[in-house]
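Appendix B, example 12.
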Amino acid sequence: MTETVVVLGAGYAGAGAIKSLEDHLDGSADVDVVWVSDRDYHLVLHESHRVIRNPDVERNVRLPVEAIKSPSTRFIEGGVAGLDPDSREISLDDGSTVNYDYVLVALGSRTAYYGIPGLEEFSLTLKSLEDSLAIHEGVKAAAREATDEDPARIVVGGAGLSGIQTAGEIAEFRDSRHAPIEIHLVEALEEVFPGNDPELQGALRKRLLDRDIHISTADPITEADESTIYFDDGNPLDYDVFVWTGGITGRECLTDAAFENNHNRVNTDATFRTSDDRVFAIGDSAIIDLGENPAPPTAQAAWQAAEVAGKNLARTVRGQPLETWDYESKGTLVSVGGTAVAHGIPGIPIGTFGGPIAKLLKKGVAARWIADMTTVRRAARAWPNM
């Protein structure tokens, strides 16, 4: 009897799991693989900030699902509205349904606003290709109206990975066009790139300051309106463009799902299986119990997990024992415009470094992912813009 395995989402976790599942099924005719996503492409999200500087990069970071999946995998474009494990049914936002025997939830996350008044209404985000293009257009329009005496003020809220890389790309836009732009990076916690190694934090801070990016830390945003951001301690900050990158939360479609979840993120064990034996979860959709070695919410972790999740879906269909996943850090790479910082790279004796090697490593990771998902030729075409 043919069994249906459904993968929800086309982010790193979803796209990677599709590739892994197809590889481990090896053309098995008794499994119907269905891929569901609200968009018909995979976004190379950790490089989508490049679009802020140059919209032409869109063609490099947008990978069509048809270039990723095998012909035998059926793709359905649609947003997930709900999941009912009792009936094994997925509801889509157009009213249609998809039935499954096994499902992998890899829907990613949405932006968290923490109940801060005005934050959702007045900020731009960086969760999609459309978001990157909107930031580009907003920065360009603000710069057009500005002068050297009265520069456009761009504020990026949240100094994590997305915030740092966004601020860096805005600086590249400014410097390449000699645009009158003032950039502020604001963070509620004590340091940029919170929770990471102090040496790495210091290296990133230095490069941000070298790019003439103003940094404010240890002062949470308390409110925002259409022109001003307010803080717990500091003076209000007027802005022309406000980008919020300060946090993530789970998808609302999981709110009423009848299995263990926390803030719409599904609890799983190290095999990605949930409290329902037929439901698996991965990436930002999941809280994976890895004991004392938790995985960070990064693309690197999603790539690693996707390989095991795809294999486990194939093993489940065949009645084989599941593998457990252990996260293994391959180091950290962060771009600040045209420069990059590397930290903790295996095999390299220097703990934290920048320069051409760090930049080359950052480009190489993006190119390898594109090649693994599609073709080497597509990766080579993207190389100059990574």
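The first strand starts at residue 3 and ends at 8. The chain has two domains: 3-38+78-109+250-329, 119-244.
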